[in-house]
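ASSEMBLY PREDICTION REQUEST
Request ID: AP-0331
Submitted by: J.K., bench scientist
Number of chains: two
Total residues: 652
Priority: normal
Notes: Please return the full assembly, not individual chains.
Input sequences:
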Amino acid sequence: MDADVIIGGGGFVGLSLALALARKGLSVTVADPVTPSAAADAAFDGRVSALSYASLRMFERLGVGADLASEAQPIEQILVTDATLDRPPSPFSLHFDGEEIGGPLGAIAENRAIRRALYAAVARQPIRLIAPAAVTGCSVEGAGVRARLSDGTELSAALLVAADGRESRLREEMGIGTVGWSYGQNGIVATVTHEKPHLGTAYEHFLPSGPFAILPLTGNRSSLVWTEKTADAASLMRLEPAEFLAEIARRFGDHLGAVAHEGPRWSYPLRFHLAREYVRPRFALAGDAAHGIHPIAGQGLNLGLRDVAALADVIADAAELGRDIGTLDVLKTYERWRRFDSFAMGLTMDAFNRLFSNDIAPLRLARDLGMGMVDRIAPLRRYFMREAGGDVGKLPSLMQA
Amino acid sequence: MTDAAHPAAASTDPSVDPAEVAKFSAMAAEWWDPAGKFAPLHKFNPVRLQFIRETAAKHFGRTGLRPFDGLTLLDIGCGGGLLAEPMTRLGFAVTGADASEKNVKTARTHATTSGLAIDYRVTTAESLAEAGVACDVVLNMEVVEHVADLPGYLNACARLVKPGGLMFVATLNKTLKSLALAKIGVEYVLRWLPPGTHDWTRFVEPERLTGFLKDAGLTVKQTQGVSFNPLSWSWSLSNDTDVNYIVVAGR
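STATUS: Completed
Returned structure:
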């Protein structure tokens, strides 16, 4: 065989999995349609990602932490408010302080910085990265799976993992359906600079059209993740720079002084989806290929990394016992471990979004009182922080403290 | 993991009847289906694999994903190859012995599809010992409870262990608890095994078994209990040797 595991897709999930498996002594080949230099380009991906502290622990163990450290902004506190465009934020706000659980709540990093750190870590390991080339198909034959690459190569392995994103071609190739729905919302992403330092504070303003998050980046910069109804998002994307900045300012507030918009703006449609199956013989889905959730609490990447850590545990445990790592018996352990968790997290985020993306008076009152209550009860606050930090449930070994 | 065709690959031998091949492929599929007829064995397999791996790795001072490269292993009563295949992946050069020709053909068919080179033979421990075969590790898993002349059998097995090597003997204790659980519970209540699979009168107490092993010239290193937990529905190593247990002996 050419490798123990072939990974289709070299994004965060694919590269992290390659690192996690290589660390356990397995041979890994990753194929991705985008070359490292193209993927690290600023125009390729303008998004930022929230990394829970469980994810940061995992990156540390995978040798990604050192390269990322200078580019990741720790989140010291999170301030949640219910707001409208013409009313001041409700007095019932919610304040999460990292001090209460003994350290930062996580970190925010630009996707291209995470990608660069992952590529550097992969280059230090005996991992074969084939790019540009996509895995376009596969066939299971006896004790192996044969993967076909877009450049005409064929590779065999004991297991093929599809980490090829939400529109996963391999998922489709396998005939695995998804359940899901569109939110009718888009996430607009842009970077701003501001006069005053943010002190590591992340703000989440719940506006009737959807959450407006201000996420601290290194320096006097923040990333906006701004949820709008799809039609409104399209009009916002067409605005002249000065008008766009004015729309930002209306929502941003003046607590950080004057604000300026930096670089391009991006708009991404928001959907929820969950694959009906995560595994087939010699085949497994991971990350966005398996699930996609609302970005309301920045949990998407963390969920994907949790898949990676769980799958790496399951594969390494099987390999250590000399078991065939591609059998359904082995892979089902991963599916049982991860699929329900993704579903539960997806539904929670869905409920948050539905609860907050509206302007219905009784709901406003209920959620404001709810936030006020959580804000006043320390154990509840700590519970939410640990949940968001990814520190609850059965943790894979890479994420354990 | 490497590609390696079995030397006696059934499917390429012109003298082999295709109907035979189909029959043994079907049986191999049955042996290797974790939800099928041998489900209880699949459930039990990981805990014994882990015990063998850890004990042998410690004994031979080996680490890594293929810790046993360069060492030989004999699996007596290999059945469909549920232990022989993983042991091959862990680096051992494996010989699988079974008195049943059906089992050996089944195991061979499966090893071919798995791309693993395993030397399966229709033979017994006694004839292997006579032929002067000796391995670094001898697995004697769930066999002794089916043997009529236990001291004679264990004498032959002891000769199959190379000096400095290990033998693992897994079996069932002769207690009221094992009668209730392993015989009546497993065969008549849970129906994990067909009624009549085991004869309780042939179950053997750890003291008797270790006595025979010592008489055969081996040193007993460890007696390890293995228990089923009905709450988690899983097997694990335990201090309880009342029902299932494994003895490790060295030469």
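REVIEWER COMMENTS: Residues 1-123 of chain B form a domain with the Rossmann fold fold (CATH 3.40.50.150).
SIGN-OFF: pending second reviewer
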